[in-house]
Design goal:
15 helices, alpha/beta, Arc Repressor Mutant, subunit A, five-stranded parallel beta sheet, globular, four-stranded mixed beta sheet, about 375 residues, Rossmann fold
Length: about 375
């Protein structure tokens, strides 16, 4: 069992009397972690909302019926809570009238769950995102190894794939990408084109590390720009991709229309383009490394409970800095290079002479993730 660093954060939030909302993609380990939390309590109740009978028991219930359902349980876990209509009101009813009960909700789609829960639980909840396995979680539980980094670069960090033989891991990653990726990205009744989504994800997979133009994507797929923006927004809310905005302290120099898009998990990204070659044979190792460092930095800050904003920088003459992190009023810039140290953009250094820049390579990455 690989210990997840979020376990302590979840327990602390529950002890504070908050309703804890655990987000994350399907099969990223939410249920396993929720059950691990549940095992720490003497009398817990697990409600799986993939079960239609559970949905019926939770939908539009009165306080009296909720009391009967909960009984003596001191922790209630509602798994895949976005499936319950008015789940926010139900959670509020439990929290306000049964304050001794602790409540943990999980969800695979921030769109559905946030829309149903945020307003009723304002000031009563804490939202936490569960990422795929981080390198630090693996090394803290097993041993420090460069092999783990290379495994994450190719097969990703979904718990089900970890430790499997390489051919089996590749098959599982393909199944994950093709069957589960956006099962919860689109709410019931949403009209969408499956072929367009498949092609959009492949285009995004090939463009990791590059600026993405919504207009160009729309032209390639022969759909409207608004359609592309809507699909990308939904895919982000299902924790498949995330966007990095441009750093624009000087509006006259930076370009604000474009974004970079990265994947929460590189195994999923590689499955979309069906490429599981080892790192020494990869033509896209630069893009993989950039995506890897950025997502591992996000996990590192989450583990330390540090709030940051992340950006990239690019000038009109196409000079770039891969990552800029903003924490409070401090900024730190990073270049992500697989093999050798990078030359830092002269334009960037001239504009931001006081901002430190670190180059992260395969030789020093342990110090930064």
């Amino acid at each position: 069992m690989i210990e997840r660093y979020l376990e302590k954060q979840l327990l602390d939030a529950l002890e504070e009397g908050l309703v804890v909302i655990l987000y994350g993609a399907r099969q990223v380990g939410k249920t396993t972690l929720a059950n691990k939390i549940l095992s720490r309590f003497d009398n817990g109740l697990y409600l799986d909302c993939d079960d239609p009978a559970v949905i019926v028991r939770l939908r539009n219930q009165s306080l009296a019926s909720l009391r009967k359902l909960i009984g003596s349980a001191n922790l209630i876990v509602i798994d895949e809570a976005q499936r319950i209509e008015n789940i926010g009101l139900t959670a509020k009813l439990i929290h306000d009238n049964l304050p001794e009960k602790k409540l943990l909700l999980t969800g695979s789609s921030s769109l559905d769950l946030a829309n149903k829960i945020k307003e009723p639980l304002t000031g009563r909840s804490r939202e936490i995102l569960l990422y795929p396995l981080s390198l630090s979680e693996l090394t803290d539980n097993i041993v420090k190894s460069d092999g783990f980094m290379q495994r994450l670069l190719i097969y990703g960090g979904y718990p089900e794939l970890w430790g499997l033989r390489e051919d089996v891991a590749a098959r599982k990653a393909r199944e994950l990408a093709n069957r589960y990726l956006y099962r919860d990205a689109f709410a019931f009744g949403t009209i969408y084109n499956q072929a367009i989504i498949d092609n959009l994800l492949r285009l995004l997979a090939y463009q990791v590390g590059s600026e993405v133009s919504y207009n160009e994507l729309a032209g390639s797929l022969e759909v409207s720009k608004n359609t592309i923006m809507r699909y990308i927004d939904l895919l982000e809310k299902a924790f498949i991709i995330f966007r990095l905005p441009q750093f624009r302290k000087n509006q006259r120099v930076q370009i604000g229309r474009l974004r970079k898009i990265y994947f929460y998990d590189l195994g999923v990204r590689n499955a979309l383009i069906d490429d599981f070659k080892p790192v020494e044979l990869r033509g896209d190792i630069g893009a993989l490394w950039e995506n890897f460092i950025i997502i591992e930095r996000l996990k590192k800050h989450q583990k330390a409970e540090e709030y940051i904003r992340s950006y990239y920088w690019r000038s009109r003459d196409k000079q770039e800095v891969d990552l800029i992190e903003e924490m409070a009023t401090k900024y730190q810039a990073f270049e992500c290079k697989w093999k050798k140290a990078a030359r830092i953009s002269i334009s960037f250094k001239n504009q931001y002479p006081d901002m430190p820049v670190t180059v992260i390579t395969k030789d020093n990455y342990w110090d930064y993730i």
